[in-house]
Protein backbone atom coordinates (compact mmCIF):
# COMPACT_ATOMS: atom_id res chain seq x y z
CA UNK A 1 0.00 0.00 0.00
CA UNK A 2 2.81 2.40 0.89
CA UNK A 3 4.61 1.51 -2.34
CA UNK A 4 1.48 2.29 -4.37
CA UNK A 5 0.95 5.67 -2.68
CA UNK A 6 4.55 6.83 -3.11
CA UNK A 7 4.72 5.46 -6.66
CA UNK A 8 1.63 7.49 -7.56
CA UNK A 9 3.28 10.59 -6.12
CA UNK A 10 6.52 10.07 -8.04
CA UNK A 11 4.78 9.31 -11.35
CA UNK A 12 2.45 12.30 -11.02
CA UNK A 13 5.33 14.63 -10.15
CA UNK A 14 7.43 13.47 -13.11
CA UNK A 15 4.54 13.56 -15.62
CA UNK A 16 2.32 16.47 -14.58
CA UNK A 17 4.30 18.69 -12.21
CA UNK A 18 7.67 20.41 -12.05
CA UNK A 19 10.27 17.62 -12.20
CA UNK A 20 12.74 19.78 -10.28
CA UNK A 21 10.55 19.43 -7.18
CA UNK A 22 12.35 16.14 -6.51
CA UNK A 23 15.77 16.95 -5.07
CA UNK A 24 17.92 14.02 -6.18
CA UNK A 25 20.97 15.29 -4.29
CA UNK A 26 19.08 15.05 -0.99
CA UNK A 27 17.82 11.60 -1.99
CA UNK A 28 21.33 10.38 -2.84
CA UNK A 29 22.73 11.70 0.44
CA UNK A 30 19.87 10.35 2.55
CA UNK A 31 18.56 7.11 1.03
CA UNK A 32 21.48 4.76 1.94
CA UNK A 33 21.54 6.20 5.46
CA UNK A 34 17.77 5.86 5.80
CA UNK A 35 17.90 2.19 4.74
CA UNK A 36 20.72 1.60 7.22
CA UNK A 37 18.73 3.31 9.97
CA UNK A 38 15.67 1.21 9.14
CA UNK A 39 17.72 -1.97 9.61
CA UNK A 40 18.88 -0.76 13.03
CA UNK A 41 15.35 0.30 13.92
CA UNK A 42 13.98 -3.16 13.12
CA UNK A 43 16.47 -4.70 15.56
CA UNK A 44 15.34 -2.23 18.23
CA UNK A 45 11.72 -3.07 17.44
CA UNK A 46 12.43 -6.73 18.23
CA UNK A 47 13.94 -5.90 21.64
CA UNK A 48 11.79 -2.99 22.86
CA UNK A 49 8.48 -3.64 24.67
CA UNK A 50 5.30 -2.52 22.90
CA UNK A 51 4.45 0.14 25.50
CA UNK A 52 7.85 1.81 25.09
CA UNK A 53 7.60 1.84 21.29
CA UNK A 54 4.13 3.40 21.48
CA UNK A 55 5.24 6.00 24.02
CA UNK A 56 8.28 6.99 21.93
CA UNK A 57 6.14 7.20 18.79
CA UNK A 58 3.55 9.44 20.47
CA UNK A 59 6.30 11.64 21.92
CA UNK A 60 7.97 12.00 18.53
CA UNK A 61 4.70 12.75 16.72
CA UNK A 62 3.61 15.32 19.32
CA UNK A 63 6.95 17.13 19.18
CA UNK A 64 7.08 17.03 15.38
CA UNK A 65 3.49 18.27 15.13
CA UNK A 66 4.27 21.35 17.21
CA UNK A 67 7.42 22.07 15.17
CA UNK A 68 5.60 21.54 11.87
CA UNK A 69 2.74 23.86 12.85
CA UNK A 70 5.30 26.52 13.80
CA UNK A 71 7.00 26.09 10.41
CA UNK A 72 3.63 26.41 8.68
CA UNK A 73 2.79 29.61 10.55
CA UNK A 74 6.16 31.14 9.65
CA UNK A 75 5.71 30.18 6.01
CA UNK A 76 2.17 31.61 6.01
CA UNK A 77 3.50 34.92 7.37
CA UNK A 78 6.21 35.05 4.69
CA UNK A 79 3.65 34.34 1.97
CA UNK A 80 1.37 37.06 3.33
CA UNK A 81 4.22 39.57 3.41
CA UNK A 82 5.33 38.59 -0.09
CA UNK A 83 1.78 39.05 -1.40
CA UNK A 84 1.54 42.46 0.29
CA UNK A 85 4.80 43.63 -1.30
CA UNK A 86 3.69 42.31 -4.67
CA UNK A 87 0.42 44.26 -4.48
CA UNK A 88 2.30 47.44 -3.52
CA UNK A 89 4.66 46.98 -6.49
CA UNK A 90 1.73 46.52 -8.88
CA UNK A 91 0.01 49.65 -7.53
CA UNK A 92 3.24 51.62 -7.91
CA UNK A 93 3.61 50.40 -11.50
CA UNK A 94 0.08 51.49 -12.40
CA UNK A 95 0.46 54.90 -10.79
CA UNK A 96 3.88 55.74 -12.22
CA UNK A 97 3.63 53.91 -15.54
CA UNK A 98 7.22 52.72 -15.00
CA UNK A 99 8.10 49.08 -14.71
CA UNK A 100 9.46 48.44 -11.23
CA UNK A 101 12.44 46.02 -11.04
CA UNK A 102 11.62 42.50 -9.99
CA UNK A 103 11.96 41.51 -6.38
CA UNK A 104 15.30 39.86 -5.64
CA UNK A 105 13.70 36.41 -5.16
CA UNK A 106 11.82 36.59 -8.45
CA UNK A 107 14.90 37.88 -10.26
CA UNK A 108 17.00 34.98 -8.96
CA UNK A 109 14.36 32.46 -10.04
CA UNK A 110 14.16 33.87 -13.57
CA UNK A 111 17.92 34.04 -13.87
CA UNK A 112 18.79 30.58 -12.54
CA UNK A 113 15.76 28.60 -13.83
CA UNK A 114 16.98 25.01 -13.40
CA UNK A 115 16.24 22.71 -16.35
CA UNK A 116 13.18 20.57 -15.81
CA UNK A 117 14.95 17.28 -16.56
CA UNK A 118 15.30 13.95 -14.77
CA UNK A 119 18.94 13.23 -13.75
CA UNK A 120 19.05 9.61 -14.86
CA UNK A 121 22.55 9.09 -13.49
CA UNK A 122 21.41 9.94 -9.95
CA UNK A 123 18.33 7.77 -10.38
CA UNK A 124 20.52 4.86 -11.49
CA UNK A 125 22.65 5.22 -8.35
CA UNK A 126 19.50 5.08 -6.20
CA UNK A 127 18.41 1.91 -8.00
CA UNK A 128 21.83 0.35 -7.35
CA UNK A 129 21.55 1.22 -3.65
CA UNK A 130 18.09 -0.35 -3.64
CA UNK A 131 19.47 -3.56 -5.21
CA UNK A 132 22.30 -3.82 -2.67
CA UNK A 133 20.02 -3.53 0.35
CA UNK A 134 17.41 -5.76 -1.26
CA UNK A 135 19.90 -8.60 -1.87
CA UNK A 136 21.22 -8.35 1.69
CA UNK A 137 17.74 -8.49 3.23
CA UNK A 138 16.69 -11.40 1.03
CA UNK A 139 19.82 -13.28 2.15
CA UNK A 140 19.13 -12.56 5.82
CA UNK A 141 15.44 -13.48 5.50
CA UNK A 142 12.52 -12.71 7.76
CA UNK A 143 12.31 -12.80 11.57
CA UNK A 144 12.12 -16.61 11.48
CA UNK A 145 15.29 -16.88 9.42
CA UNK A 146 13.49 -17.80 6.20
CA UNK A 147 15.52 -16.44 3.27
CA UNK A 148 16.73 -17.56 -0.13
CA UNK A 149 19.50 -19.47 1.63
CA UNK A 150 19.27 -21.31 4.94
CA UNK A 151 21.17 -19.34 7.57
CA UNK A 152 20.73 -19.51 11.31
CA UNK A 153 18.96 -16.45 12.76
CA UNK A 154 21.54 -14.43 14.73
CA UNK A 155 24.23 -16.89 13.64
CA UNK A 156 27.74 -16.06 12.38
CA UNK A 157 26.67 -15.63 8.74
CA UNK A 158 23.69 -13.49 9.78
CA UNK A 159 25.85 -11.05 11.74
CA UNK A 160 28.60 -10.96 9.09
CA UNK A 161 26.05 -9.84 6.48
CA UNK A 162 24.53 -7.29 8.88
CA UNK A 163 27.95 -5.93 9.91
CA UNK A 164 28.99 -5.52 6.27
CA UNK A 165 26.03 -3.19 5.71
CA UNK A 166 26.82 -1.05 8.75
CA UNK A 167 30.57 -0.92 8.00
CA UNK A 168 30.05 0.10 4.36
CA UNK A 169 27.63 2.89 5.27
CA UNK A 170 29.71 4.27 8.14
CA UNK A 171 32.79 4.49 5.91
CA UNK A 172 30.93 6.40 3.21
CA UNK A 173 28.85 8.55 5.57
CA UNK A 174 29.52 12.27 4.94
CA UNK A 175 29.22 14.53 7.95
CA UNK A 176 26.20 16.48 6.79
CA UNK A 177 22.80 17.13 8.26
CA UNK A 178 20.82 15.14 5.68
CA UNK A 179 22.54 11.77 6.21
CA UNK A 180 22.33 12.14 10.01
CA UNK A 181 18.66 13.09 9.79
CA UNK A 182 18.05 10.18 7.39
CA UNK A 183 19.64 7.66 9.77
CA UNK A 184 17.51 8.88 12.67
CA UNK A 185 14.41 8.81 10.46
CA UNK A 186 15.24 5.30 9.30
CA UNK A 187 15.75 4.11 12.89
CA UNK A 188 12.40 5.55 13.93
CA UNK A 189 10.72 4.12 10.84
CA UNK A 190 12.08 0.64 11.56
CA UNK A 191 11.32 0.96 15.28
CA UNK A 192 7.74 2.11 14.81
CA UNK A 193 7.07 -0.14 11.81
CA UNK A 194 5.65 2.57 9.52
CA UNK A 195 6.51 4.12 6.18
CA UNK A 196 9.14 6.85 6.39
CA UNK A 197 7.04 9.57 4.74
CA UNK A 198 5.26 10.52 7.96
CA UNK A 199 8.68 10.96 9.56
CA UNK A 200 10.67 12.37 6.63
CA UNK A 201 8.37 15.29 5.83
CA UNK A 202 8.59 16.95 9.28
CA UNK A 203 12.37 16.38 9.37
CA UNK A 204 12.87 17.95 5.94
CA UNK A 205 10.63 20.88 6.86
CA UNK A 206 12.64 21.51 10.02
CA UNK A 207 15.91 21.44 8.05
CA UNK A 208 14.49 24.10 5.73
CA UNK A 209 13.51 22.17 2.60
CA UNK A 210 10.54 23.83 0.77
CA UNK A 211 7.25 21.98 1.48
CA UNK A 212 6.56 20.78 -2.07
CA UNK A 213 10.18 19.67 -2.51
CA UNK A 214 10.06 17.88 0.85
CA UNK A 215 6.89 16.02 -0.14
CA UNK A 216 8.16 14.99 -3.58
CA UNK A 217 11.65 13.98 -2.40
CA UNK A 218 10.38 11.99 0.58
CA UNK A 219 7.93 10.17 -1.72
CA UNK A 220 10.81 9.11 -3.99
CA UNK A 221 12.89 7.92 -1.03
CA UNK A 222 10.03 6.01 0.62
CA UNK A 223 9.13 4.38 -2.71
CA UNK A 224 12.57 2.73 -2.72
CA UNK A 225 12.43 1.50 0.89
CA UNK A 226 8.78 0.39 0.72
CA UNK A 227 9.21 -1.42 -2.60
CA UNK A 228 12.26 -3.22 -1.21
CA UNK A 229 10.20 -4.59 1.67
CA UNK A 230 7.31 -5.43 -0.67
CA UNK A 231 9.42 -7.52 -3.05
CA UNK A 232 11.18 -9.17 -0.13
CA UNK A 233 7.88 -10.25 1.45
CA UNK A 234 6.59 -11.60 -1.86
CA UNK A 235 9.74 -13.66 -2.49
CA UNK A 236 9.66 -15.01 1.05
CA UNK A 237 6.11 -16.34 0.64
CA UNK A 238 3.77 -13.56 1.79
CA UNK A 239 0.14 -14.70 1.86
CA UNK A 240 -3.06 -12.83 0.89
CA UNK A 241 -1.33 -11.08 -2.03
CA UNK A 242 -4.63 -10.58 -3.87
CA UNK A 243 -6.02 -8.60 -0.95
CA UNK A 244 -2.84 -6.54 -0.75
CA UNK A 245 -3.01 -5.76 -4.48
CA UNK A 246 -6.63 -4.61 -4.16
CA UNK A 247 -5.77 -2.22 -1.34
CA UNK A 248 -2.71 -1.02 -3.25
CA UNK A 249 -4.85 -0.11 -6.28
CA UNK A 250 -7.27 1.82 -4.05
CA UNK A 251 -4.33 3.64 -2.44
CA UNK A 252 -2.84 4.49 -5.84
CA UNK A 253 -6.11 6.02 -7.10
CA UNK A 254 -6.76 7.86 -3.83
CA UNK A 255 -3.22 9.26 -3.88
CA UNK A 256 -3.69 10.66 -7.40
CA UNK A 257 -6.99 12.29 -6.35
CA UNK A 258 -5.30 13.85 -3.32
CA UNK A 259 -2.38 15.13 -5.41
CA UNK A 260 -4.66 16.76 -8.00
CA UNK A 261 -6.80 18.35 -5.28
CA UNK A 262 -3.81 19.71 -3.38
CA UNK A 263 -2.14 21.05 -6.53
CA UNK A 264 -5.28 22.99 -7.43
CA UNK A 265 -5.63 24.37 -3.91
CA UNK A 266 -2.03 25.60 -3.92
CA UNK A 267 -2.43 27.07 -7.43
CA UNK A 268 -5.62 28.97 -6.52
CA UNK A 269 -4.48 30.22 -3.13
CA UNK A 270 -0.82 30.76 -3.98
CA UNK A 271 0.09 29.38 -0.56
CA UNK A 272 2.44 26.42 -0.35
CA UNK A 273 1.99 26.52 3.44
CA UNK A 274 -1.25 24.59 2.91
CA UNK A 275 0.94 21.51 2.37
CA UNK A 276 2.57 22.06 5.76
CA UNK A 277 -0.78 22.48 7.52
CA UNK A 278 -2.08 19.32 5.83
CA UNK A 279 0.92 17.37 7.12
CA UNK A 280 0.30 18.86 10.58
CA UNK A 281 -3.34 17.79 10.51
CA UNK A 282 -2.44 14.23 9.58
CA UNK A 283 0.16 14.13 12.37
CA UNK A 284 -2.40 15.35 14.93
CA UNK A 285 -4.84 12.65 13.80
CA UNK A 286 -2.09 10.01 13.92
CA UNK A 287 -1.05 11.08 17.42
CA UNK A 288 -4.60 10.79 18.75
CA UNK A 289 -5.32 7.43 17.09
CA UNK A 290 -1.98 5.84 18.02
CA UNK A 291 -2.29 7.04 21.62
CA UNK A 292 -5.81 5.60 21.90
CA UNK A 293 -4.98 2.20 20.45
CA UNK A 294 -1.64 2.10 22.27
CA UNK A 295 -3.34 2.58 25.64
CA UNK A 296 -5.88 -0.14 24.78
CA UNK A 297 -3.10 -2.57 23.78
CA UNK A 298 -1.10 -1.88 26.96
CA UNK A 299 -4.21 -2.34 29.11
CA UNK A 300 -4.92 -5.67 27.41
CA UNK A 301 -1.35 -6.81 28.08
CA UNK A 302 -1.64 -5.81 31.74
CA UNK A 303 -4.95 -7.62 32.23
CA UNK A 304 -3.60 -10.73 30.48
CA UNK A 305 -0.45 -10.71 32.61
CA UNK A 306 1.83 -10.57 29.57
CA UNK A 307 5.55 -9.91 29.86
CA UNK A 308 6.17 -6.18 29.33
CA UNK A 309 9.95 -5.90 29.65
CA UNK A 310 12.76 -5.82 27.11
CA UNK A 311 13.09 -8.90 24.87
CA UNK A 312 16.18 -10.69 23.64
CA UNK A 313 17.35 -9.93 20.13
CA UNK A 314 17.87 -13.58 19.18
Automatic annotation (TrEMBL):
Main location: membrane
Alphabetical list of InterPro entries matching this protein: TM_pro_TauE-like
Stored Pfam families: TauE (PF01925)
Cell location: Membrane
Keyword annotations: Membrane, Transmembrane, Transmembrane helix
Superkingdom assignment: Eukaryota
GO-annotated biological processes: protein ubiquitination
GO cellular component: Cul4A-RING E3 ubiquitin ligase complex; membrane
Membrane topology label: Multi-pass membrane protein
Transmembrane stretches, start-end: 34-62, 123-140, 176-201, 213-238, 244-262, 274-296
Family from the record: Belongs to the 4-toluene sulfonate uptake permease (TSUP) (TC 2.A.102) family.
Name of the molecule in the record: Sulfite exporter TauE/SafE family protein
Origin species: Rhynchospora pubera
Amino acid sequence: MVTAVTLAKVIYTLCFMDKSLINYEIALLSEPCMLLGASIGVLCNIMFPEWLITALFVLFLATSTVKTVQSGCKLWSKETEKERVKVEVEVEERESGIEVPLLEEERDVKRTGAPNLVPWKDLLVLVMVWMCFFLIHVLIGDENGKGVINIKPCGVTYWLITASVIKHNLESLPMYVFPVAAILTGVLSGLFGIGGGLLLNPVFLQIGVPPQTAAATSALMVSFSASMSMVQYILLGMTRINEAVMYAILCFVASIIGLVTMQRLVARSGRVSLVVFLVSGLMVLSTVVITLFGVLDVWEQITNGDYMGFKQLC
